[in-house]
Write a structure and sequence with these properties.
This protein has helices at 3-38, 43-79, 86-94, 107-111, 114-122, 137-146, 153-173, 228-243, and strands at residues 98-102, 126-132, 178-183, 189-194, 202-207, 219-223, 245-246. It has 247 residues and is α/β, with parallel strands linked by helices.
């Protein structure tokens, strides 16, 4: 039994238990209303019962709010991550239609991922890569200033050119499947979008934070089944791609 399934059953059980509390309160209130109306229970007894029911109701509300808070924390823990999930690499290794990558220099992704990119291209999938324009000094300075690693604009340019050099080898082998563009403005996110026109499409987004001491975060993902926000984010990334200069 998976952890997600167990957690879902726990939340369902908690919700049902809260509903039982409410039904019990409703039943007790109805019974003692009848007893009071018929004179079977005196005023003193009814007053004690009313106070007890109010206490039980307050306790039920406290527990309900805690369950709801737990749901919120649980959902945000699942939504925002501090590092790339293994599923990203699984999607990269099984992509069948297209992969859109947006980054600053692509130094790690392309330098260490030349073989995976080659395998994607061998499957006749389309790969689009969008990096920062290394000719624009202002962009390089802004990107370097955001980094906590002490990177200089010159060093950043070298990394972009190294990525382009690696990609040039693949372009020569797969001229129709690999396209590279250079972005004329500073991106605030890194993007890995896989099979975007498929029902199984998935997008992984990394927020580029200022002076991050480790991996920039949060990192989150969207599925095609997420509907509006998936399409909203994809539309932005496609606009960014259109602004890119062919490398």
């Amino acid at each position: 039994m998976s952890g997600k399934f167990r957690e879902r059953m726990r939340l369902v059980g908690a919700a049902v238990f809260v509903d039982l509390d409410l039904y019990a309160l409703l039943l007790a209130g109805f019974i003692f209303t009848i007893l009071g109306a018929t004179g079977i229970a005196d005023v003193k007894t009814l007053s004690s019962v009313v106070l007890a029911l109010l206490s039980l109701m307050a306790f039920s509300q406290i527990r309900t709010r805690r369950v709801q808070a737990g749901r919120t924390i649980h959902s945000y823990d699942n939504l925002f991550l501090a590092d790339f999930p293994p599923a990203l690499y699984q999607h990269r290794d099984t992509v069948s239609q297209d992969w859109l990558y947006i980054g600053v220099s692509g130094y790690r992704t392309i330098g260490a991922g030349r073989l995976p990119i080659s395998k994607i291209l061998q499957r006749n999938a389309k790969v689009r890569i969008l990096l920062l324009d290394h000719r624009c000094e202002d962009l390089l300075r802004a990107a370097a200033a955001r980094s906590a690693s002490g990177a200089t604009p010159e060093r950043l340019r070298e990394r972009i050119l190294a990525s382009l050099s690696e990609l040039a080898v693949l372009v020569a082998r797969f001229p129709g499947n690999l396209e590279i563009r250079l972005l004329p403005f500073l991106t605030t996110v890194g993007v890995n979008a896989f099979d975007t026109t498929s029902p199984s499409g998935r997008v992984y987004v990394q927020h580029y934070e200022y002076a991050a001491q480790g991996e920039s975060s949060p990192i989150y993902s969207l599925r095609a089944s997420d509907g509006y926000w998936y399409q909203h984010q994809l539309a932005e990334f496609e606009r960014m791609w259109k602004e890119g200069r062919p490398a």
